[in-house]
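User: I'm new to structure prediction. If I give you an amino acid sequence, what do you actually give back? Let's try with this one:
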Amino acid sequence: MQVYCIIGDERVSHAKSPAIFSALLKRLGIKGAYVPFKVAPHQIGQALNSIKVLNIAGANVAVPYKEAVIPHLDILSEGANIIGAINTITCKGNELKGYNTNAIGFMDTLHDVGFDADGKSALVFGTGGVAKAVVFILNWLRTESIIVAGRDTEKTRQIVNRFSGEAQSINALSNRPLAVNLVVNATSVSSPDESEEMAAMIERLKVQDCELVLDLNYGRSQNFWRDMALRNDIPFMDGLSTLAHQIKRTFFLWTGIQVPPEEFLKVINANL
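Assistant: Good question. You get back a string of structure tokens that encode the predicted 3D arrangement of the chain. For your 272 residues, that looks like this:
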């Protein structure tokens, strides 16, 4: 029997990953378990060492530890090393290796909807590990212009210095119309209940020439990114497709089994 887990702060108790992965293991006839572990910031190193001690086959890393776990890993994939954030860990031969499947999941989603980023412009909200993955892929896909918007000025500058782009404060964006082809929410906030301040700022946001608004969160009954897209007559997607693609990559890293993303979507929709 193989054991997998997700590591995060107190929010990990609300994560959908345990239900999704447990259902997937059962669907594929694999004897295994997937459990959430709440870890305090000062216990990250101990938690990573425990993966080895307990012979846990693989782990996911949730916000806010996608960057904090890196010093405690034995090796990083090339992509994870470039991005500077990881969301998937494999444990093989007592070696912990970190990967970033957020980036590939995002790229696969753009491919699914037929959005060609080459020569286009993008506006990315967020300064964490997910935002890093998004900006990395947009640069990889030769996006001509990328604006990274965040509340933390220093973190925003660090992302654009690492990959390229233009750093902006979220407040400044609501004061002028923006011509961008793609808007991506890479923050953890999508509902007014999560941040009334953010909801108010996005309500004032005016975008032109936009072909897609992609919110990498999912499962919100109220979603101010969706409302913004509707007001501006822009196609909207939540993060379910991206989640399915990144889970596909993670599952393959853990098990070596290739499963079509459609199968993951079935499991995800049944367990939301």
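You can read the tokens as a compact description of the fold. Here is one thing that stands out. The first strand starts at residue 2 and ends at 8.
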